[in-house]
Amino acid sequence: MAPSIIFSLLSLLLVPTSGYVQPPEEGFISGVISDKGLDYAKELLIEKGIASIVMLQLPEIENSAQVPFVGNAKVVLSDITIKDVLVNSSSVKTGESGVVVAVSGATANLSIRWRYSVSSWLIPIGISDSGNASVEVTGMQVGLTVNLRNQEGSLKLTLLDYGCYVGDLSIKLDGGASWLYQLLVDAFEGNIASAVEEAISEKIREGIENIDNLLQSIPKQISLDKTSALNVSFVGNPVLSNSSIAIAINGLFTGKNEASVLQGYQKGLKISSACGGLPKMIKLSIHENVFKSASLVYYYAGKMQLIIDELPDQAILNTAEWRFIVPQLYKRYPNDDMQLNISVSATPFIQVTYQHVAATIFVDITINVLEDGEVIPVACISVEISALCSVEIVGNNISGRLKLQNFSTYLKWSKIGKLHMNLIQSLMSSVLKTVILPYLNFKLNRGFPLPIIDGFGFQNANILYTQPWIAVCSDVFLEDYYYLGQHSAYAS
Question: Could you give the domains of the chain?
Answer without folding.
Answer: 24-31+221-260+270-466 (3.15.20.10), 54-217 (3.15.10.10)
